[in-house]
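Category: protein sequence paired with discrete backbone structure
Discipline: computational structural biology
Format: plain text, a pair of labelled lines
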Amino acid sequence: MVRFENVGLRYGSGPEVLRDISFALEPGTFHFLTGPTGAGKSSLLKLLTLSERPSRGLITLFGQPMSKTPRAEWPGLRRRIGVVFQDFRLLDHMTVFDNVALPLRIAGYQEKKVKEGVTDLMSWVGLADKMGALPPTLSGGQKQLVAIARAVITSPKLIVADEPTGNIDRAMSMKIMRLFIELNKLGSTVIVATHDMVLVDKLQKPVLEIFEGKLAEASWWMNPDSPDRLGTPRADHPLDAAPLDDNPFA
């Protein structure tokens, strides 16, 4: 699905902000991306979403070496990537329905299919009663759910989320992460950038850790002091509130 080989990135004539980045993401996997502020997470996400080109090295997406892929084909590849931004980037003058429908309309779907797809998805995430609302009237958690719905409405093969729980409370964070888990179970490859090590520790997914522009070896996040390492549930953790099912908001 994704392969980076000795990738470096610099902006203009400045120093490299990413150095010798190498990793691979298999189809249908779920990874966290962690690291301190300024370590290079945002720059790595820009490369993953084709917002930037590397200064050196090779990036392969969906089996295609990007250095050999004509720029004219990049928009088509971007449509196979669902991006969830930390600041939502919703269009405030458009209803929730129209925000979520936008990728389908850009892709040329018939309006009947647009209505069916958006209605089903908004019902699934628990916001069927908000489709006519404008984004400024929503809570932070509701805005994030709308942003995620917009990102996944076209069933992207790769989902990239930048701090999706950074601006919401713990209960809503649980709902968001359960949604990503369900999308992953449906076949999407998911990478979530986060500072929330409680979620990382709880979910026990592979972690890509970046520090000062370099990537540590991908590993399973295992806190030796965590009860979860021994299989003991933590009743006070929101992700223990309910088992996963076909609808994370049922």
Summary: The first helix runs from residue 41 to 48. The first strand starts at residue 2 and ends at 10.
